[in-house]
């Protein structure tokens, strides 16, 4: 019997058919990543508005095959609903308002938007930065801004090409919007200072859209994983049993989203329910992807390109509603409300404190680095803001600036901390006396694999690489700092190269280039960051077995136990001769 994944009750069959037709098109086909296309424009511009369950079902269908288009639809849905609420359903809604880009919604932990606004005569000065999701190229930007001198929120629809608006990265379906400009009253949506409720509802819709995207990736990952299961076994394999547990979690996440969609249609408060739906869907997606990647590592029927496409889609979707940690913080605040502020008098802050080279980090620095590592790995470097990291900690951006001068400085510090933890663990093993080099190499590989699992977020940042994220974005002073941290990475790699050389010289490994041999060693273990996800009930013994398996695997490769026959002929791919 094959599992089926029904849509929520009452979803329009006509829209499901349109969504599937668009999903079958390649990502660069007509419609691209723009909801101005006739196929989707009516879904956001309909009067009365389309039911939330229908919009969420379409987003789910598009999320894996057309991730950018699913983000565009999420942005258009959130913006159109906010414009209706603030400007009135009878207001003229041209293409600009029906397909606006959405930015600046409520940060769950702080309860305040990322932008501030203050009156300058008859104009308004808006400043701040926040993640955004795009509905259409050149569409206006929907921004909710907090009044600096009053507990009020206003909404603005800003022209995308206005001086003072910068979006990074350029040409993408999401990223970070940087705003510093003055606008006239015609850019206001509704009355000044009256948009707080609309902002919260918009933020809840973003979470529901992100949950639908996560569910769509989960279903696609399940389909790929199920196709890799062996068909001729007498009893269900361990992989099938793990997939069954993942499928149960996925079904629960979809049921919760269906309930949230019905609550949205009824006009109920979605603040906590939307966070629960997103947390549930996100965890189910990560679990299903991990199961699919694990099956792929042992299956000849795996499709690596399709799995990589799902990982990219999941990464892209993180911009829709922010990190999982932010949603958890919102729920945690409802479960255990924060204590009232303590009496002023406080612990003095550390100004631009360097990361200690050894020993324990100060508590606040460690907390900032932990939150930053989680944020940088749950979404792109560009989409992550210091506000989000502060929200996850329940502190202001200024508290982070007390320790780190910029986002680049903080990213570099996270990378440095990952290397320092690795060096502190592995270097003593590399320098052990009286132990064969090949045995030390095994223990080093084992220790590195354990570090990956123990400090997963940090190791994912380390695998991303500094140069790929920061090159071209930093000044000379920051470049010098970057070079210092890169030297740590080189030192760590040299530990392995030196022990490899010793093992080769001692005849414990065949003759080979030790520096070249270190590359696949790191590649095999670091790839764990792509598929490993702690499972419920996982024990230290489980991690020990996995680390031992990885260390044995890389050492077996270095022994070069398999050698192709001297007369073996390898057929070249068709057409290769013409390309030479």
From TrEMBL:
The protein's UniProt keywords, in alphabetical order, are: DNA-binding, Transcription, Transcription regulation
What GO terms are given for molecular function?
DNA-binding transcription factor activity; oxidoreductase activity, acting on the CH-CH group of donors; transcription cis-regulatory region binding
Which parts of the sequence belong to the HTH tetR-type domain? Answer: 362-422
DNA-binding region(s), residue ranges: 385-404
Region Disordered, residue ranges: 93-113
> What name appears for this protein in its UniProt entry?
HTH-type transcriptional repressor KstR2
Species per Swiss-Prot/TrEMBL record: Achromobacter agilis
């Amino acid at each position: 019997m094959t599992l089926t994944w029904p849509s929520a009750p009452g979803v329009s069959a006509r829209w499901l058919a349109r969504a599937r037709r668009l999903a079958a098109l390649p990502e660069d086909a007509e419609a691209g990543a723009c909801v101005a296309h006739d196929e989707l424009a009516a879904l956001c511009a309909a009067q009365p508005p389309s039911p939330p369950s229908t919009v969420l079902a379409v987003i789910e269908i598009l999320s894996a095959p057309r991730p950018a288009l699913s983000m565009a639809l999420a942005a258009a849905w959130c913006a159109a609903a906010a414009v209706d609420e603030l400007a009135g359903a009878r207001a003229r809604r041209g293409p600009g308002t029906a397909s606006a880009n959405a930015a600046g919604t409520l940060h769950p932990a702080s309860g305040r938007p990322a932008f501030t606004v203050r009156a300058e005569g008859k104009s308004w000065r808006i400043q701040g930065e926040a993640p955004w999701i795009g509905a259409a190229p050149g569409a206006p930007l929907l921004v909710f801004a907090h009044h600096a001198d009053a507990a009020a929120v206003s909404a603005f629809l800003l022209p995308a090409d206005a001086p003072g608006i910068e979006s990074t990265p350029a040409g993408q379906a999401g990223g970070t919007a940087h705003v510093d400009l003055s606008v006239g009253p015609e850019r206001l949506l509704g009355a000044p200072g009256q948009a707080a409720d609309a902002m919260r509802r918009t933020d809840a819709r973003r979470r529901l859209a992100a949950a639908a995207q996560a569910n769509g990736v989960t279903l696609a990952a399940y389909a790929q994983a199920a196709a890799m299961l062996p068909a001729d076994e007498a009893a269900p394999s361990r992989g099938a049993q793990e997939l069954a547990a993942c499928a149960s979690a996925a079904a629960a996440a979809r049921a919760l989203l269906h309930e949230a969609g019905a609550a949205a249609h009824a006009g109920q408060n979605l603040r906590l329910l939307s966070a629960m739906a997103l947390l549930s869907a996100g965890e189910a997606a990560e679990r299903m992807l991990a199961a699919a990647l694990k099956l792929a590592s042992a299956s000849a029927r795996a499709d690596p390109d399709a799995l990589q496409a799902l990982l990219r889609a999941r990464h892209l979707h993180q911009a829709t509603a922010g990190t999982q940690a932010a949603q958890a913080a919102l729920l945690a605040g409802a479960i255990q409300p924060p204590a009232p502020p303590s009496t002023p008098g406080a612990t003095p802050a550390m100004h631009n404190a360097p990361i200690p080279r050894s020993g324990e980090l100060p508590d606040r620095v460690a907390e900032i680095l932990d939150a930053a590592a989680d944020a940088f790995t749950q979404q792109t470097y560009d989409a992550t803001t210091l506000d989000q990291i502060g929200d996850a900690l329940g502190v202001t951006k200024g508290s982070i600036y007390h320790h780190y001068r910029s986002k680049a400085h903080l990213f570099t510090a996270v990378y440095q901390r990952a290397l320092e933890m690795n060096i502190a663990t592995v270097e003593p093993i590399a320098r052990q006396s009286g132990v064969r080099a090949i045995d030390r190499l095994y223990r080093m590989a084992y220790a590195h694999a354990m570090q990956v699992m123990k400090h997963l977020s940090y190791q994912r940042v380390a695998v991303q690489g500094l140069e790929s994220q920061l090159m071209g974005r930093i000044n000379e002073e920051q470049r010098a700092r970057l070079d210092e941290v890169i030297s740590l990475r080189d030192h760590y790699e040299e530990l392995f190269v030196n022990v490899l050389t010793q093992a080769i010289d001692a005849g414990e490994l065949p003759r080979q280039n030790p520096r070249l041999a270190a590359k696949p060693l790191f590649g095999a273990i670091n790839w764990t960051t792509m598929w490993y996800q702690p499972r419920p009930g996982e024990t230290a013994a489980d991690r020990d077995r996995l680390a031992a398996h990885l260390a044995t695997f890389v050492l077996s490769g270095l022994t070069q136990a398999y050698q192709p026959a001297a007369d073996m002929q390898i057929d070249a791919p068709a057409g290769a001769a013409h390309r030479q």
